[in-house]
Hints:
0% strand, 4 helices
Amino acid sequence: MPMKKTDLEKNKALKLNNAMKLSTADRFGKPGADKLDRREQRKLDQAQGLVPFACKIDGELVATLKARAVDHPGGLSGLLNEVIQRGLGDES
């Protein structure tokens, strides 16, 4: 049984959308960054002894931390490690 024209067009659109999602073409002259998927990133974090830790913090404090983390070599995680260690008195 032949497909209707609308069904064919839907299939074409789905194929096109999928191809666009999977494409790793250069964007604006920059090659696509090789990002790790969540599983690989979790394995790397575990190998370093890192553990996810969630908590609720005031919005103004978060904005301040993010602003300071821009210049910190360890990023936000490194800055938080440093601040917490100083706060606990563990200058190691």
